[in-house]
Design a protein that fits this description.
Chain A: GO terms for molecular function: electron transfer activity; flavin adenine dinucleotide binding. The complex is a heterodimer of chains A (413) and B (273). Chain A has 413 residues and is an alpha/beta fold. Chain A has helices at residues 8-14, 40-47, 61-68, 113-126, 143-146, 161-175, 186-199, 297-307, 315-319, 350-355, 372-376, 385-406; strands at 16-17, 24-25, 76-78, 99-102, 131-137, 150-154, 179-183, 203-207, 209-211, 214-219, 224-228, 233-236, 252-254, 266-272, 286-290, 310-313, 340-344, 361-366, 379-382. The N and C termini of chain A lie far apart (84 Å). Chain B has a domain at 3-187: 3-Layer(aba) Sandwich (Rossmann fold). The chains are: A alpha/beta (413), B alpha/beta (273).
């Protein structure tokens, strides 16, 4: 097999421009084969970030390849992902040898991080033959990917924990699982103890190691650890056991016999949400923080109040005295445990990123495409935060206005 | 208003010396405040402490924290305190029983208040940070901690058992004179201590285990664990990037994202239906 021999004279004749007497050749046409000719000027122009007054260039490889093909940089795009994998096969356990039940907190119908860890622990106890069944009071989504083979959805018994314990104990009596695991959280630990007393079974609480060989819990002020074979009831400590890492499970819906919940002895219950303006930054659920990219801090405070967030700030603003020191986020300020962090005009110094390492969701608005905060964020917006803040306020005010129109003030409904 | 505070023999978390658990000292503060709110007609109706165990000296600090009287039920080491406590509480019938949510330095299982509530057939309100008299006579208003500063306000009638959360007000300062004036009443064991449900355990010295780094793959390299620890491998790797959008569109995207993860309330929900 020999390569086709090139004929340089014929190629040059093909690109000769007919007009004029002097021989001229059009070399812009793409050659038929071989490596494409690079055009460094066009590449550079394609990498230029539009809109900025100062010339700025995006040197990331994806933009380079687009510039090579003569495309302009895209305005909105999803980050490059490492090749779309085929959807993983769902593992089905048709006839489980035994059941391991998990009673998640599932606040707001979602599994918490702690719930997912408990499901991972249950998965290790169930092994290949057993099945994990989630028993949730009220709906709960995302059980299959977290490792649940079966799902029992009970009617929500209301806010009384005694009624909740009675409903779940009745379901557990019907399911007859070998082990029942709870998260050792405020609600989960309360529920586990109520059910243990109700069933007359000892509870192995606060397990830090969960394996089929045994459970381990600390005792006597963490001076000793107690090991026991997995019993009927156990609670699992937070951040001690990894999530389920294997293929998703089917979470087939099961129905069980339920008992009517006993009448509640509480006269009334009322949930008082934490006041986001006064809650300590380390405990806050949702933090909106300002950085050096902001100049209008009054608008920032309005945005914080409208979103019902806790205000935070970067070190630069606190050093300048523009925000109080106790709002500083980062290694020398507060390390957050928030669910969501909304960064306005923060580029993300490493010390600042340490402070938000525990945040599950990050939203960033910054003018710099290459800022670490943009790289870290789940939703990154390359735009001036000064322009986005009033737009956000207008949008919230417009929604509030529509709501008012739908429900006039005098309407009793 | 008769208030009983359950006391346990705790160990200091650092020095391991005998100490009154902080949660119980906080419970004493709640009890004395509530007693003052109702007004104390005589010494017998004042809040009192109740301890079941081998030695009353272990909880004598409670006198200095604000209690006037302690009742001590002598029990052998390791006996189940629930039957003795239940019998004594049924006899004295306090309107409110306060306990810590967990012990300190012992088993730390926190099951005793639940077993007592079942034995006395009373409602149990867990993780309370404040107790106040309710609007109606004979009712109590209790604030339960839900974590992260959120509260659940529960109104309940009649005798009730409550456990105290660490977010409750800090305990009163220890007062030596109060500790000298207080009295300890010794009671004989009133019921046969039966054995509760116990799990046979094997004990070893405690070994600290590494915390699970969320998002790091099992058996991954140190670089991957560092990425997971700084949060670069989670939502960031599959995030959305908008370059130079219109500010209005950016605001819509942000609000939609915040609503999807559930930190901002959806617009349809009306606050006062």
């Amino acid at each position: 097999m020999t390569r086709l021999r090139r004929d340089p004279r014929a190629e040059r004749t093909a690109i000769r421009v007919a007009a004029g007497t002097r021989p001229r050749y059009d070399r812009t046409a793409k050659p038929a084969g071989g490596r494409p000719r690079r055009d460094p000027r066009a590449e550079r122009a394609g990498q230029r970030v539009p809109g900025a007054s100062r010339p700025r260039f995006d040197l990331s490889p994806i933009i380079l390849s687009q510039a090579l093909h003569g495309d302009r940089p895209v305005v909105a795009e999803t980050r490059p992902r490492p090749a779309p994998e085929a959807a993983p096969r769902i593992v089905v356990v048709e006839d489980p040898a035994f059941l391991v039940a998990v009673v998640p907190d599932a606040t707001g119908g979602r599994l918490s991080g702690h719930d997912r860890q408990v499901l991972g622990a249950a998965r290790t106890l169930a092994g290949r033959e057993g099945g994990v069944v989630v028993v949730s009071a009220g709906p709960c989504e995302g059980c299959g990917p977290a490792g649940a083979d079966r799902h029992v959805v009970l009617d929500d018994p209301g806010p009384d924990p005694a009624a909740r314990a009675a409903t779940i104990a009745a379901a557990l009596a019907d399911l007859e699982p070998r082990h029942v695991l709870f998260p050792e959280s405020l609600d989960g630990g309360d529920l586990a103890r109520r059910i243990a007393v109700r069933m007359g079974v000892a509870l192995f609480d606060n397990a830090e190691v969960v394996a089929a060989a045994g459970l381990v819990r600390p005792a006597r002020g963490r001076r000793v650890e107690q090991r026991a074979a997995p019993g009927r009831l156990a609670t699992v400590a937070a951040d001690a056991v990894p999530d389920h890492a294997g293929a998703p499970r089917e979470a087939r819906v099961l129905t069980v016999a339920t008992a009517p919940a006993p009448a509640s002895r509480l006269l009334s219950t009322e949930r008082i949400p934490a006041d986001p303006a006064t809650v300590p930054l380390a405990l806050a659920e949702f933090v909106t923080a300002a950085g050096n990219g902001l100049t209008d801090l009054d608008t920032f405070r309005q945005v914080v109040a409208a979103l019902r967030a806790t205000p935070g700030a970067s070190r630069v603003l606190c050093d300048a005295g523009l925000m109080p020191r106790h709002t500083q986020v980062g290694a020398s300020g507060t390390v957050l445990a928030a669910t969501c962090y909304f960064a306005l005009g923060i580029s993300g110094a490493p010390q600042h990123l340490q402070g938000i390492a525990g945040c599950e969701h990050v939203v960033a608005v910054n003018t710099d495409l290459h800022a670490s905060m943009i790289e870290r964020a789940g939703l990154a917006i390359v735009q001036d935060a000064q322009a986005v803040m009033p737009a956000l306020l207008r949008l919230l005010a417009q929604e509030a206005g529509e709501q008012e129109a739908g429900h006039p003030a005098g309407d009793p409904s | 208003m008769k208030i009983a505070v359950l006391l346990s023999a705790g160990r200091h978390p650092v020095s391991s010396t005998a100490v009154l658990p902080r949660l119980e000292a906080q419970a004493i503060r709640i009890a004395t405040r509530l007693g003052a709110a109702f007004g104390v007609p005589d010494e017998a109706a004042a809040p009192f402490g109740l301890h079941a165990g081998p030695d009353a000296a272990a909880v004598a600090d409670a006198l200095g924290q604000g209690l006037g009287r302690l009742e001590h039920i002598a029990l052998s080491e390791g006996a189940d305190p629930v039957p003795a406590l239940a019998a004594r509480l049924a006899a004295t019938a306090p309107d409110l029983i306060l306990a810590g949510r967990r012990g300190q330095g012992g088993g730390e299982s926190g099951i005793v208040p639940y077993a007592l509530a079942a034995a006395l057939d009373r409602p149990l309100i867990a993780d309370v940070v404040a107790v106040a008299p309710g609007d109606e006579a004979g009712t109590l208003r209790l604030d339960q901690s839900l974590g992260r500063g959120a509260l659940r306000r529960v109104v309940v009638r009649g005798p009730v058992l409550a456990t105290v959360h660490p977010d409750a007000p800090a305990p009163l300062a220890y007062a030596f004179g109060r500790a000298r004036r207080g009295t300890i009443v010794s009671l004989g064991p009133t019921a046969d201590p039966g054995a509760g449900p116990v799990i046979p355990v094997e004990e070893r010295p405690y070994r600290r285990r590494p915390k699970v780094v969320k998002g790091a793959p099992a058996g991954g390299s140190a670089a991957e664990r560092l990425k997971a620890a700084t949060g670069e491998s989670g939502a960031a790797s599959r995030g959305r990037l908008l370059v130079d959008p219109d500010p209005e569109e950016a605001a819509r995207e942000i609000l939609a994202y915040l609503r999807r993860i559930g930190v901002v309330a959806p617009p349809a929900s009306h606050p006062h239906p």
